[in-house]
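Hey team,

Filing this mostly as a record. A colleague (T.K.) asked me to run one chain through the structure pipeline before their review meeting, and I want the input and output archived in the tracker in case anyone asks later how it was produced. No errors, nothing strange. Just documentation.

Input sequence:
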Amino acid sequence: MAAKDDLGRVGEQRAAAYLSDRGYDVLDRNWRCPAGEVDIVASRAGLLCVVEVKTRTSLRFGHPFEALDDRKVRRLWHLAHAWIDAHPGRAVHSRVRLEAIGIIGPDPRSGMLEHLVDLR
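Output structure:
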């Protein structure tokens, strides 16, 4: 596995733990369908939260949230609805919200973590 893959995997593990510690119920991780992949699907207070995780070792190539352009956000909405369609018994929520977690630092276990709660 490439170092980039390891970095992303460790970042996603930390993000899932962070969400769990804040009362989210992590329903799915790395869910794939023909349209793409969702990093984390979680539930909290009646919301279905689709969470994109971006892990970077530094800001050399920009902030992790800069990768979340309009095209990526539209794709995440599409994937959120695909997850709901694929999980009719588990997707009983009144609302869906996109979120993002950015982790910056050479070690994602201790790097700076930022949580963007409502990605539009």
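Quick notes for T.K.: The chain has one domain: 3-116. The helical segments are 3-21, 70-86.
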